[in-house]
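All the exercises in this workshop are built on plain-text protein records. There is nothing in a record beyond a sequence line and a structure line. A learned vocabulary of local backbone shapes supplies the integers on the structure line. The question running through the whole workshop is how a given chain folds. Here is such a record, shown just as it appears in the course material:

***
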Amino acid sequence: MLQDEYLHRIQKTDTSNKRYLYHQINWDARLICIRGARGTGKTTMILQYIKEHYNNLSKALYISLDNFQFQLITLYDVAEYAHTHGIEALFVDEIHYTKHWGQMLKQVFDTFSDLKIVYTGSSMLQIDDAQADLSRRQSVYELHGFSFREYLLFHNILSTEAISLEHLIEHHTSIAMDLASKIKPLPLFEQYLREGYYPFVLEAKQDYLMRLGQVMKLIINQDIPRVEDLSFATLEKAQKLLMLLATQVPLEPNISTLCREIEATRDIVIKLLHLMERAGLLMLVSKESKSYKTLSRPDKIFLNNTNQMFALTNQVNIGTLREAFFLNQLRQGHLVEMPTHGDFKVDQTYTFEIGGRSKTFQQIKDIPNSFLALDEMEYCVGNSIPLYLFGFLY
């Protein structure tokens, strides 16, 4: 039965385009963890790898632990079957559906030394001191949603390589002029902001925003409680908090007000904010001097990506939209904080102010390494950079 499902999935898998992370993974490692929020394309990526690298598909096996069969059998049972049937690599999807997954994975890893294991799970999976033995054995990767560059690639509009932030800052005018000679970036960018972040847009089409709303609800009701032990009442408060934030972000939060609105204690509200950030529902930004190691009050709250804004509210503020896009794209591979002046400070070096074509340097004119990220512009010169170009960083 498991073999039939595996072969059926492989047959349907398209390998023509691959996510940015595919080529960054050291697939030769014996234990690989791929984390990511629901809907970001983890399953497709590992199925693509199997299809391309195993001419003999019987040497690999894909399983998903959200399958009802795993109410009766365990991951260890499958690993033992793989070991006795000449299977070289086990690809385990949705590992967070199994309780005590860390201990079981460690047992499988130690017992079947000839078995390679690649597993995926919620972005909430903690690879920390509690699983130190496991963390020393594995390579861990995080998969985010589509960048604007990937959106163009997977829609067969444009194929181009990712660029570094430093290269973008130095050469943005020539980069933008080259892109503008091939595509009309601004209307495509507008489409991406509304419905381009999650790979399932390719199949959902006009139902995309409805499906995204369903995905967000599943994250709260299924993914979060599988990693954190929360009561039903607390999960209901999490849903209420998310809807409350959707109409207000970017929000410099008044925790007391949020506590009253959802009828929860300060500790619960702060815990829920950080849980929803880990789950891919929010982005929390702190000031430069604040520690990131403690569950403290964030200084600003955004929804995780611009598509979520359109899925949850009909009143999307354009300024919020621009800032959320910039933050979402830069958080992949960069440290982003709130500076004293300007909207964001990146890697403790570059200060950015985000806005439309009429935005000026007034607020950051005396700050070194300061830049404007401008919407509604195909190309700019000097320290003004088109906002859409920040979607080509990965």
